[in-house]
Known about the structure:
heterodimer, A: mainly alpha, two-stranded antiparallel sheet, 23 helices, 65% helix, B: Alpha-Beta Plaits, Rossmann fold, 6-stranded parallel β-sheet, 22 strands
Amino acid sequence: MNRRMILYILGRILLVEALLMLPSVLVGIIYSEKVTLSFLLPMAILVLLGAYPAFRRPQNTAIYARDGLFIVAASWILMSLAGSLPFFFSGYFNNYADALFEIVSGFTTTGASVLSAPEELPHCILFWRSFSHWIGGMGVLVFVLAIVPLSDDRSMHLMRAEAPGPIVGKLVPRMRDTAKILYGVYSVMTVILIILLLIGKMPVFDAFCTAFGTAGTGGFGVHSQSIALYDSAYIEIVIAVFMLLFGINFNLYYFLLIKRAKLFFKSEELRWYVIIVAIATVAITLNLTMLTEKAFGLSLRQAFFQVASIISTTGFSTFDFALAPQFTQHVLLLLMIFGACAGSTAGGLKISRLILLLKTFFQEIRRLLHPRSVSVVRLDGNAIDRQTIHGVLSYFVAYIGILILTTLLLSIDKFNFTTNFSAAVACANNVGPGLDAVGPTGNYGGFSAFSKILLSFDMLFGRLEILPMMILFTPDVWRKNA
Amino acid sequence: MRITIIGGGKVGLSLARSLISENHEITLVDTDEQVIDRAGNSLDIICYAGNGASFAALKDLEIESCDLVIAVTGSDELNLLACHAAHKLGARHTIARVRGPEYTEQLYQLKRDLGLSMFINPEKAAAEEIERILRFPSASRVELFARGHVELVSCRLPAGNILDNERLCDLSSKFGIKVLICAVDRGGELFIPGGSFVLHAGDELYLTGSPKEMAEAFRRMGLQTAPVKSVMITGGGAITYYLASLLEERRLRVKIVERDREVASSLAEKLPDTVVICADATDHDVLLEEGLEKNDAFVSLTGLDEGNILSALNARQHEVSKIIAKVNSDNLTKLARTLGIETVISPKAVVTNQILRYVRALEDSSHEDNILSLYKILDGRAEVLEFAAEGTIPNLTDIPLSRLKIRRNVLIACIVRGGEIIVPRGNDMIRAGDGVLVVSAGGTVLNLIDILENS
Lengths: 482, 455
């Protein structure tokens, strides 16, 4: 591994993080809050640690797949460790584990919180909490790739390690331009959302934070009642639609922009995404109207919002679905696992992986009927090579393994199975709220420090799609001659 | 510029690498998924697995918005078909690599019909470069302009040369040197010299002039270390064939050592004046027996890089004055230089350079269409550009050069009028239809008007 190049990139990431803390400081100054000072020490630490390696460009800038995976995993962990410091110094969090859990939840766009009443926090801390969603949504390294030239030739390894989905491709030949296009689409959509929210008479500060939470499909609210507080059908529909939009592969928006709409509508993943959203919405609406006293209109509104929020793994809520009928809870739990499209800001297993898994399964059945048949799995009409299929299968195995292991380890605490399992699912899929004790009105504060760190790792596993994190636990990588 | 490269072989990849560093957007097409995978991981380009000669693939790649298509697959026919197809679909320029000597003649006629902007033959280009180097054994580099009518040669002025401490304006009258010194590199500093410039030993000189005048100038400068009269070549591949036929034209004594009997006898058939010896070139006794040390130049062109380097080292031990080795691998090229083999030729590099030059000229001329060719010297600090003076240009044509207000650091090196070379003096003038060679250091020159002050 190219240690000096890894240090160089990590140094730059730390500097970029210091830069990203500036908006929060600005918010603190606007609201003239004394807590803003808790940002200064972390920023100083980041600059001191980052500056030296960041300006020593090594001679050999070549990085390979394992360096790429390592850099991504290490930078997310470093960013989380440093990003939690403002929380810790602010004094609003009980201990460091709480602060760490909160920022990991932010960066990984999970939205799971240890706080029972976020509205008690000062504005600058709340802003940093929500802004971390926006940063983590599209990825820090993609951001770094867009603004600072790193290693031009082999940056694909970084992009592939950070971007979600089984198949990662470039939009335009130059990596930097691809990163710029992605961040361009992301920023413009965020701005549009902020404007729409302001039109809906949402307070300015709330509009910004909610937009960040929606864009990154994170789900940190600025109030304990989440979106229910505003009690506005307009705001709910705008947010629901945008949560769904941010769950779509960003490459497709680029294809729309360059007038290749055919590719947009050809996408199998998008088609299934829409179908699943429609079916789940109808099912939950019927379930709510039949088993509760809610009117059809209200049921539809709540069902649509909740389905959009859960499938895009955002985790905003307009009602306490943990108290909803069992069927609704089960459908939502299933949607948590599905997740949205690859190449979006959403988490979860990703619809495209699901499609590939099912197609591989049916192919296997066909092979039983016709043992000598030769067939390929297709997605969007293109044949998918065996390597990719193999990757999807092993990903699924690792994913299930992590869910089981986490549930088992969480059971050491006092909570019941529903809480433990839904907490594992909600964290590993970057959703946020689970069921029962960790439901929309509950929080993760009750877990032990060990469980919080375990769940933090789950969130990182979920956001980075397991492989980059696994490389940190591989002894080979740490050997000198690796 | 948006450039599509079809074929991910050695040349394709080395082209992609060079073009990225000049900030172009590259798409690489190859049928081999493994090649595509590896390229995508190591280069910042889009890789596409598919047949670059098929309409389906080219449409998928949006070839119509592509500025240049370069086809460098292993097959001549595929390259031509790919370029033709790309041209039909609206690609602006196309370059095909065509190796087969049997196609060379007809291509000049078919070029337009096929929609080719340029075709390149790496072996022929390499042979031509070797031939140019052999013509000036003391020169480090030779380039051709104006369809071969003008040469650009660089050489170092050795200590104690007759030109040491002489002014440039005296060269013609005192020494009868009729070529122009258009640029001088003195210890890393670049000069576009005027008449009063004084030469010093150790200067790297860039000279332009007709091939005949150039040979004469080298002779008068006393730089011509005994002209190469006899050449020994090892290996009987395509480069050897092209090189030997070029050398035969110049009536040099050529001896080829080739191991394979059939290849050797077919060479002997095609090259009547050349001595072809069927023997293993790595057997140094055979080379000695054939009079290695009595030859003025030794060129090793076998298919094996390592063998070529070793033969070259062996030749150096026997004090052959000019030694050239063909080395294809980049790593070995560096090694060969450190071992002291001064001239290393790589067909891959020759082709890459040729295409790069074309791309640069294309890029620089995207506004004005009259840059014919462009060549960067001194690590790109200066450029030699060839223009066509199309029609009368106010304030420039038909005015004696002495009365033109030409920009600082710009020099008119040569005027080409109907195949005749004019090394410009004060009372010469540029006429409509002339080819003009301009040397410029600093400041972009995009058309002829640009060479004038305050233009």
